[in-house]
Amino acid sequence: MAFLVGGALAVAAFKTVRYIEDQNVRERFHLDAQDRINAIKREIEANLEAVQNLYSFYEGSEKVTREEFHKFTAHLLTRHPSIRAFEWIPRVPLMKKNLYEEEARARFPDFRISEREERGILINAQRREEYFPVYYVEPLRGNEAVLGFDVASEPTRLDALKNARDSGLMAATVAITLVHEQEDLDGFLVFIPVYQKNVPLDTVEKRRKNLLGFVVGVIGIGDMVDRALTYLKPAGINIYLDDASTSQGDIDFYKRQPLLNNDRSASAETEVKERSNLFIENSFQVADKTWKVTGVPVTAYSSDINDLYAWAAFAGILFVTFLITVYLKKMLDQAVYSEGLVRNLGNEINVRREVADALKKSEKEFRALFENMNEAFAYHRIIVDETNRPVDYEFILVNHAFEKATGLKREDILGKKVTELIPGIRDSKPDLMSMYGEVALTGKDATFELHFEPFNKWFLINAYSPRKDHFVALFDDITERKKFELERERLLAELSSKNRELEQVLYVTSHDLRAPLVNIEGFGRELQYSLKELMNALEDVEMSSDTEDTVSRIAQKEVPESMAYISASIVKMASMLRGLLKLSRLGRHELRSQEIDMNKMFADVITNFEFKLKNAEINVNISDVPPCRGDSGQINQIFSNLIDNAINHLDPARPGIIKISGRREKHHSIYSVEDNGIGIHPDHQEKIFELFQQLEPGSGNGEGLGLTIAHRIVERHHGKIWVESEPGKGSRFYVELPA
Predict the structure, then answer these.
(1) Fewer CB under 10 Å: which end of the chain, C or N?
(2) Whose CA is closest to 220, among 259, 183, 168?
(3) 287 by DSSP, 3-state: which?
(4) How far apart are CA 120 and CA 610, in angstroms?
(5) How confident is the model at residue 371 (pLDDT cuts 50, 70, 90)?
(6) Cβ contact 264:280 at 8 Å
(7) How far apart are CA 563 and CA 568, in angstroms?
(8) Shortest CA distance to 639 belongs to which of 664, 674, 615?
(9) DSSP for 127-193?
(10) What is the DSSP letter of 300?
(11) Hey, is 651 helix, strand or coil?
(12) SS3 call for 392
């Protein structure tokens, strides 16, 4: 009976654990897959925005030369490596075909308007009413073959071209094999139509009539997905991209398989999707197309985990059941244990779900913050006087972030000069005109910080020139950071002043107190001589026995005892003043930083203590240590003080041992001086680096300044010093210094 009950429990546990693990796998998969889908969407949006920026450049220019096209797109290609190329495709009527070819041959002698035949060979384009050849392309290297290719000769590209022309909006092709590549590579083209300016475009016929050409972005799908997923760890998820807007329905045009997937067969992927119904799908717009992204786990994503834990639970309960049938008493104990195990398992599941919910919330907040961060952008034309000196600049194009950062509205500033908008700026910011002028006239990039009084803000400005006499300024608002830096500089200056005042007080105090201390010591000796002369004089004077006893007691006992106390206090005070003077001189000493051979330095320090070490029969072990950077004399003082402390506070009940070691961690070297002495009580460990604090108060070992001086030197080297100690076992001092 017990075995049957145990078997039933085992089956129930198997199903329960497998269900729980399956739910956990599903939650983890949805998080992982959604991360990847969102990353792909952000990368697509960034690439489309780059093509839109090139279109804005054309809209803000009367005519764009090949050199201007090259300079503007170079910056975009660097920031968006998954964009394989940018193209300018003009509309060329039949009557102007020869004129365009002749103009292009001035730089490219073999230029011709071409198309591909069935075998893929480029031939002269057939006669038609108008052509749409690739006239500019960047980068040019590797894309020479595409120059002159008539995009309208290929049906897929022609469809997207017509959609963009007739709608006046961005249009994309379906997935195609790119002409630009020597090897087959899937990608797609994005077309944005450029029309004549200041003409009506409210009908399709007007848009066709006034079309100048197209700004085109050539985007590699594989590059785009790989870049989007670069910073995400492989998770065993296959990514499929489908074009859901075609007349044939969903068309699978890209598949990305993770490196950890050993089973790459389509049938295996289909089997996982159908068996577990574990997948995620999202749709979004790419220009005029609707793309669908599907994430499907590989076979190994969940099956091993599910089966492992489920079978483990099944086998475990069967084993427990076997023990229950043999040992009845242990059955009760095991039942209690199993109940606690199940309760803990439920608690663990709840905790994991709470953590997952918190992660989802945090991720959502972070994405919202990240996706709303935009740089302020302003495109200008520089204005010079008759001597070619920059005197003004005109606003051509700004974005919403610029409006938000400055409070200036787009409609109020476009086409206007900055001196009209901000009177007096030429006098208040004379360097601004010259810096912007150098960028616009020479093409040299510039980065600088600027305090703009009209807005009472600090900006970090990156300026570059996409074309002659023009420049782009990218703004970051750094007002809060500058306020913090200015306040930090003020506090540091104030702290430095206070430290100098404190050092001066210490120096003056320790120096000036030595004079009265010397006087006390001298007059004390005079009192001893005078007392001796007084006693000699009193030998010939007759006194009563009581008077003689009193005089003898005062002269031979009380006065000598008082003088001994005075002398001891003078010695102690002199030692403390010497320590204060040494401490005050640390701040006056200029640090001479150099690389220090610490193995040699420790050998020199041990040599200086050789007599004390031999006399106390102390064994010193020195390991090989890394070098550091610092002032050699002051670093020597640190470890001399630490080793002197170790010698003075060894336990006389056992042989003394001092161990010195070191290690390198990133940009620092950490050294350890360890002893087996009396140790330091935890209540005193925080105080030992303070002024006049001793490891053994009242012992008379030193003036309590050795560790204070060491701590001060370490601080001047931007390092750290700390102690680990246990009373009765010893202490270990650590010193961290720049490497």
Answers:
(1) N
(2) 183
(3) coil
(4) 89
(5) very low
(6) no
(7) 9
(8) 674
(9) P-SEE-B--EEES-TT-GGGTTBBGGGSHHHHHHHHHHHHHSS-EE--SEE-TT-SS--EEEEEEEE
(10) G
(11) coil
(12) strand
Look at residue 454 and tell me whether its pLDDT is greater than 90: no
Q: Is 703:576 a contact under the CB 8 Å cutoff?
A: yes
| Beta carbons of 529 and 600 less than 8 angstroms apart | no
Mean pLDDT of 61-72: 92
- Residue reference for tokens 């309760």: 343
**Looking at residues 661-684, what average pLDDT do you find?**
92
CA 176, 180, 185, 191 torsion-angle sign: negative
Which 8-state DSSP code applies to residue 407?
-
Residue tagged 């200015």 (tokens): 486
What is the pLDDT averaged over residues 666-685?
90
Angle among Cα 460, 465, 469 to the nearest 5 degrees reads 120
At residue 438, what are phi and psi to the nearest 5 degrees?
Answer: -65, -40
Distance of CA 450 to the CA centre of its chain: 25
Give how far Cα 299 sits from Cα of 267, 294, 302, 652, Å.
Answer: 11, 16, 7, 70
Asked if residue 466 lies in contact with residue 75, where contact means CB atoms within 8 angstroms, the answer is: yes
Phi and psi of 398, rounded to 5°? -135, 160
Residue 704, Ramachandran bin (φ over 0: left; ψ between -120 and 50: alpha; else beta)? left
The count of residues in the chain is 739
Judge whether 464 and 408 are in contact, CB under 8 Å. Answer: no
How far is the C-alpha of 294 from the C-alpha of 245, rounded, in Å? 15
Residues whose CB falls within 8 Å of the CB of residue 48, separated by 6 or more in sequence, listed in order? 170, 190, 217, 286, 287
Write out the two tokens for 104.
Answer: 């292009």
Please say if the pLDDT value at position 487 is more than 90: no
Q: Tokens for 275?
A: 């068996």
- Give the distance between the most distant pair of CA atoms in the chain: 151
DSSP state of 554: I
For the chain, what percent of residues have pLDDT higher than 90? 36
**What is the DSSP code (8-state) at residue 467?**
S
* CA quadruple 79, 80, 85, 89: dihedral sign: negative
Q: Answer for the pair 76, 122: CB distance below 8 angstroms, yes or no.
A: no
Using DSSP's 3-state secondary structure scheme, residue 210 falls into coil
Backbone phi and psi for residue 115, each to the nearest 5 degrees, phi listed first: -150, 170
Average the pLDDT over 449-462 and give the result. 84
Least confident of 34-48, 167-181, 333-347, 545-559: 333-347
More confident call, 604 vs 332: 604
170 contacts 164 by C-beta, under 8 angstroms: yes
Q: Which helix (H) or strand (E) holds 524?
A: helix 514-538
Name the phi and psi angles at 440, rounded to 5: -70, -35
- SS3 assignment, position 539: coil
Q: Is the pTM of this model over 0.85?
A: no
Whole-angstrom CA distances from 253 to 39, 246, 269 are 19, 12, 16
